[in-house]
């Protein structure tokens, strides 16, 4: 049986369909994340590398038989929630994204627990400084958009020490709001404490506040 | 015939072996980048998604039959050049990395031309602010490490406007050097001009200068 697929040209989708698609695409992207990791770390013989290369090209061709013209963008459910499955930090369908899962206590504190492996390396054994920025930019952006959608205006990162690959915690809170601008502060930490401090100014497009 | 593989426990590798491994792993990672893009954009039927999912899991298992315990880290050639094929922004073997190729005029200017597609999306149709930070952090870090290896101390990004997905240009130059610290400024641009400005202070570990 041929089932309906997510089409960006369709309108908002109902929650059953949302759950069904999540259960379909989530595991696919998760398997691609594992493949990304294995591609970096493998030490198998050349002929196996070439064999896998051919298999991946064939799998990609199957997926590309019918695809969106451009990027995923943003869709909405019938209840008005948005989802950006192609997003580089939180996208369910994007193997570049860890993906971050952002939680909130409902009282202004936002956080995420994430384990960053070999694919996020910068200096040996450490998370790339730019990946620390990716995590903090997204978390601070969500935190600063709680009352109105805002985009990054400025972001300042202070790297106190290297962030080891492995389990990490990031958290953020709004420091102040001034009309379209929200100032948000946050940190990235390992088990020993803070590794990176961040401050961001997030600004709503003129029309949206 | 069983060929030798990159092992992190091995010493520096000669240039012929470096070229051979580059030609083996480069195309593998490139095929995984295509797969990442297709995973985000595909609209094929559910049964094809499930079939591809199973194929990717099988391919990953083949690669994992023998692999590094941890991340790739950094290796050196016999001529003293280092390579970080697992790096999240420039890693040849890392499908998370576009990968950036950084060029220099030999007179202090460093730049990179990169096309960022669906896997780097933030707001619909735009590059994720954190991905802009990843590009600029790496480029500025290389620029600030020309005379001595330095790591990111602070990084400040000013987002002038959204950066469209597509072909982009980033460039950077050292503004000043003060012992272990280098101040570097750079920009990210599309065809219309600058989208993000960056300033970074990069610091050498105490022992290395």
UniProtKB/TrEMBL annotation, chains A, B:
One Pfam family of this chain: 4HBT
Q: Which CDD domains match?
A: PaaI_thioesterase
Write down the InterPro entries for this protein, in alphabetical order: HotDog_dom_sf (IPR029069), PTE-AB_protein (IPR052061), Thioestr_dom (IPR006683)
Q: Which SUPFAM superfamilies match?
A: Thioesterase/thiol ester dehydrase-isomerase (SSF54637)
Which residues does the UniProt record annotate as the domain Thioesterase? 125-196
Q: Which PANTHER family match?
A: THIOESTERASE FAMILY PROTEIN (AFU_ORTHOLOGUE AFUA_7G03960), UPF0644 PROTEIN PB2B4.06
Q: What is this protein called?
A: PaaI family thioesterase
């Amino acid at each position: 049986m041929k089932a309906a697929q997510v089409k960006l040209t369709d309108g908002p989708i109902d929650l059953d369909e949302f759950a069904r698609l999540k259960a379909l695409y989530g595991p696919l992207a998760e398997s691609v994340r594992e493949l990304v990791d294995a591609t970096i770390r493998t030490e198998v013989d050349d002929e196996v590398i070439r064999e896998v290369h051919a298999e991946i090209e064939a799998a990609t061709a199957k997926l590309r038989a019918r695809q969106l013209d451009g990027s995923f963008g943003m869709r909405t459910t019938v209840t008005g929630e948005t989802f950006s499955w192609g997003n580089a930090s939180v996208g369910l369908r994007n193997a570049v994204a860890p993906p971050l899962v952002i939680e909130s206590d409902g009282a202004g504190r936002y956080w995420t627990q994430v384990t960053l492996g070999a694919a996020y390396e910068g200096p040996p054994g450490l998370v790339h400084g730019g990946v620390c920025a990716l995590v903090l930019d997204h978390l601070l952006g969500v935190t600063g958009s709680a009352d109105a959608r805002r985009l990054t205006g400025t972001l300042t990162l202070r790297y106190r020490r290297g962030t080891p690959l492995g389990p990490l915690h990031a958290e953020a809170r709004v420091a102040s709001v001034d009309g379209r601008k929200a100032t948000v502060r946050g940190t990235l930490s390992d088990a020993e404490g803070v590794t990176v401090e961040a401050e961001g100014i997030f600004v709503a497009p003129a029309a949206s506040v």
